[in-house]
Amino acid sequence: MVEQKQDLLLDNQQTHEISEENVAQATALKEYVDKVLLMEFSMSDFSEISDSINSQDLFKQHYGVIGLKKLFSSEYKSIKAAIDANLIYRLIEFMQNGSLPLLQVYIYIALPQTNQFRATLR
Questions:
Q1: For residue 79, what are the contacts with CB-CB under 8 A and spacing of at least 6?
Q2: 67 and which of 4, 14, 24, 49 could share a cystine (Cβ 3.0–4.6 Å)?
Q3: Domains of the chain, residue spans
Q4: In which region does residue 70 sit, left (phi positive, over 0), alpha (psi from -120 to 50) or beta (all else)?
Q5: CB of 78 within 8 A of CB of 71?
Q6: For residue 24, what pLDDT band results from cuts at 50, 70 and 90?
Q7: Would you say residue 112 has pLDDT above 50?
């Protein structure tokens, strides 16, 4: 019985440590996103943006999506480049991942809500 209580306490401590770690990562991500939002992007950054979106690193994914969002708002040819680079399918994967709510918001804002864009996807 004493061993079970000790195991339970250890489990609670590990859960608490994980929670603190998650909070620290979320805070670091928020600070990083705030910095990326201040950056300017051009088509010369497209390769880095594309690589970041295809990365497994959460910070790079946010960098890429925010960069793409900014390109979409300033350069129409970026939409065609994103389609040609198969990034739209990656963005859809992110949208379907419920554990990435901040990324989902930026993607929703990034994807042009125009008939011209929708026709390009068909």
A1: 72, 112, 117, 120
A2: 49
A3: 1-38, 41-122
A4: alpha
A5: yes
A6: confident
A7: yes
